[in-house]
Amino acid sequence: MVTFLRKRVVSSAIPLLFVVFGVFCLARLTGDPVNLYLPLSATPEQRAEFAAANGLDQPVLVQLWDYLGQIARLDFGESLRTGQSAAEMVFAAFPATLQLAAVTMLIAVAGAVLIGCAAAYRPNSPADRVCSFLSMTAASIPDFWFAIMGVLVFGVTLGWLPTSGVTGGAEVWVLPIATLLIRPFGVLVQVVRGAMVAALTAPYTRVARSKGASEKRVVFGHALRNAAMPALTVAGDLAIGLVNGAVVVETIFGWPGIGKLMIDSVLQRDFAVLQAAVLLTAVTIFTLNILIDACYALLDARVRQAAPA
Amino acid sequence: MTVPTPAAPPSGAEPALEVENLSVDLNTASGTVRAVDGISFAVRKGVTLALLGESGCGKSMTALAVAGLLDPVAEVAEGAVRVGGTDVLRLGRAERKRLAGPVLSIVFQDALTALNPVQTVGAQLGEPFRIHQGLSRRKAREKAVELMRTVGIPEPRARARSYPHQFSGGMRQRLLIAMAVALGPDVLIADEPTTALDVTVQAQIMQLLADLQAEHDMAVVLITHDLAVVAERADNVAVMYAGTVVETGPVHEVFAAPGHPYTRGLLDSVPENVDRGQRLRSVPGSPPELTAIPAGCVFQARCPMARDRCAEERPALTPAGPSRAAACHFSEELASA
Amino acid sequence: MTATPQDPGPTAQDPGPAPQDPGPAPQDPAAAPRPAPRPARWWTLLGGDRFAAAAAVVLGLVLTAALLGPVLLGDAAERQDLRASLRPPSLDHGVLGLLGTDVLGRSMLARLIDAAGTTLSVALPAVVCSLVIGSAIGMWAGYHGGLRESAAMRVADVILSFPSLLLAVVALYVFTPSVANLVLILAITRIPVYLRTARAEAAELRSRLFVDAARTFGAGSGATIYRHILPITLPTLLTVATVDFSFVMLTESSLSFLGIGIQPPDVSWGLMVAQGRQYLQTAWWIAVLPGVAIVITTVSATIIAAWARLATDPAQRWRLTAPRARRARANRGETPS
């Protein structure tokens, strides 16, 4: 198990390194990185000063070394808008996004397992067909539009829920979570259903029935554990994809998370903050991948024993 | 019942398993077809009945119908399956589940897919005890280890923690058998238990089954297409063709003097029965599609002795002697030939 | 639509690997040998599935509107008329007023059709580019194996392990948002999807006899891939492309909505939703209608993809040809026991 995880950590670190270098290269790809950091209205003197101060007049290798050193010290520079340290801003915004994503994923997984199992138990029954159509639609609805419809119906017309902000009780969570939930939920229901249909027709399910196992035991004890493998893979991808949704949801509902920070820094051309946010997201995703691998190995002995590529 | 079954109770002993006029319908894209058509047989305790036939003749479907494990596309159309005198087809789902394991059990082929890949074999072998006897996890594991020892798995205590993929094919089949006999059932159905195995391992597995049968005094229904296995291991045989039973009787009698041209054809195709230098004979043609079963005799298209009557009238399974029956208009002719 | 399913006729005979389909693979109807009817034409199959037929019609309409709209409507999408500002959808103002007007009095219908063109002009090239490049690299990597395979897969993993929107956000910060850049970025983020699929299939086919045979005859790797691997892999890849079309469309809409995709004065559905946001309380239709357009188009593409997956899989195709009533019966949950 320990060897397994060590190998996974090493192979998962490669994408992380790619991002670190990617951001560095991208910043220099446009010709002059000063353009990225300073507003377009900056004078040539300001540019030269900034370049010298940040070592941008040095050879590329020296710059790379400085850059890596800065990352190691979590020093991403200062925000042009607020003058605050970029790292501080990012870390302040991070928990809000994490809470939102965690609650969403929990609901999505629990709900998808229940609904997916129910649909797979009687494949192609009317209930299953309705469920398939609804989950397909849910996975195809643009989240930003869904959010706006939510605001229109529950915020503007009915006045039940706040249209944005984080101050208040449970009601401020409803629309953001519903918006973030809809796509992962739709996708996951389809995956769980498909995997469960396969598992419920597998020979080992028949054997379990031949032992007189109750349907509950057959579905949750035997089939679900096998179906958990593909579901887990997709759930992992969806959790990573939640970043996409978070950007949209946080922008619409004014949720002070990392996604809103990212879009704001793009629109206001604040590269230091954007860079910090991207790197932190990359680290989060890296950690998430390791966690998923660990779950995988816990669920299936074959994964544990096979040397991962 | 007019048809004498192979295990027609000579001493009035009740058969452990009695299948009467069982039909199974299959819903396919091209319509509903009858995969099993009115078959009957019975087995007493301690006796082995072989269901013999080519693949697709309905023998596995029969086994699944008896065990109540048919896929949703198939359903029992009519008939009765009596286990220890009760018709299990009339039982509710929960009652039927209570019988599965302690009374009626089944061994499947292809042990790799029949074992759950994500559970330890110890947990899977202990499951019958947990379900039917409500044992604790620890106690069930003890029982599982015991079972593994009985079926000849070395170092059972350590290996109970292993997963199915860590066992060889023969060992997996042993595990599957152990699971089936865990609660000492009265009736054991073995569906091609040795098909996926090497010849040497096949013999070991068949011996294991025979030992366990003697130990638990089980009625065994052995489903196979292997004539040699039938000859060696079965007491009675029911030969199936296109969803029907075409001949029944004690193995040695049937094999010595077949009463149905299909049985004769099968026997003739075994290399040992042919003199050296002679051409190996085979039954020409292939079984009819289930969607296109002819009106008369099901075997007419491949039968060397087919006449006009065979195309018009389906022969019933008629008694020939005290314990035998064949479904052929001309079985006497065949016997005297 | 790129993903117009090819006539699956010839591929049905190919022993090609079943598409990696996590979808329904329940009961095995092959237990009963089926007669092999002539493979149905794809339009017959399409007609047999009402959902899929409706979806195909919708996609056809969107495509036609996007192509013919500019010709028929002229500059209606840009024509401002402040007296007609924020008119709700009604029948009183001619065809152009059918769906209401925006704050500048521009016809919503004309703008929606104009936006359809923009959306498709981003989504279609992006899908085609990623399909062509991804499949080519994937088949090449899968066919050759070894180092080339692992290098390609590693790069694909890296791209896939990051949210597409994140990559797009960073890239669109550095480069200015334009249609060409959008297409480029969306294509790059989706290449791994095809790469993985094509590689898996090519690696599977690499060891097949007919590929070996081609190699023995001295066919170059390019020719072998083109002649033998591409035809078998294509249906799967096209199905993936159909699913991906929805995804790319949604991503483009999201980016445009966030203000880093299509820029005014161009118009796309996502951008229209963003512009309608501030009039949510007074003129709901400005934000609602473009969203409806997105949903209808993506749902249609998804339905077509699901249908194509069935139609290109010989083992599943019977589901589309079975008469409705029988299909319902065949799919009934449990057997009465």
Automatic annotation (TrEMBL), chain A:
PROSITE patterns, per the entry: ABC_TM1
Transmembrane segments: 12-31, 98-121, 133-161, 181-205, 226-253, 273-299
Entry-linked CDD domains: TM_PBP2 (cd06261)
Membrane-protein topology: Multi-pass membrane protein
UniProt subcellular location: Cell membrane
InterPro entries from the UniProt entry: BPD_transp_1_N, MetI-like, MetI-like_sf
One Gene Ontology term, aspect cellular component: plasma membrane
GO molecular function: dipeptide transmembrane transporter activity
Major location category of this protein: membrane
Highest taxon of the lineage: Bacteria
ABC transmembrane type-1 domain residues: 94-292
UniProt keyword terms in alphabetical order: Cell membrane, Membrane, Transmembrane, Transmembrane helix, Transport
Assigned protein family: Belongs to the binding-protein-dependent transport system permease family.
Protein name: Peptide/nickel transport system permease protein
Native source organism of the sequence: Murinocardiopsis flavida
Lineage: Bacteria, Bacillati, Actinomycetota, Actinomycetes, Streptosporangiales
From TrEMBL, chain B:
Location of the ABC transporter domain: 17-267
Membrane association type: Peripheral membrane protein
Keyword Kinase: no
Cell compartment(s), UniProt: Cell membrane
Cross-referenced SMART domains: AAA
UniProt keyword terms in alphabetical order: ATP-binding, Cell membrane, Membrane, Nucleotide-binding, Transport
This protein's record includes keyword Cell membrane: yes
Gene Ontology biological process terms, A to Z: peptide transport
An annotated Gene Ontology molecular function: ATP hydrolysis activity
Entry GO terms, CC: plasma membrane
Pfam family of the protein (one): oligo_HPY
Family stated for the protein in its record: Belongs to the ABC transporter superfamily.
Name of the protein: Oligopeptide transport system ATP-binding protein
Gene source species: Murinocardiopsis flavida
UniProtKB/TrEMBL annotation, chain C:
InterPro entries tied to this protein: BP-dependent_transpt_permease (IPR050366), MetI-like (IPR000515), MetI-like_sf (IPR035906)
Protein keywords: Cell membrane, Membrane, Transmembrane, Transmembrane helix, Transport
Residue ranges the record marks as coiled coil: none
Swiss-Prot/TrEMBL GO biological process terms: transmembrane transport
Pfam families, sorted: BPD_transp_1
Any Gene Ontology CC annotation: plasma membrane
Family classification: Belongs to the binding-protein-dependent transport system permease family.
Name of the molecule in the record: Peptide/nickel transport system permease protein
Organism this protein belongs to: Murinocardiopsis flavida
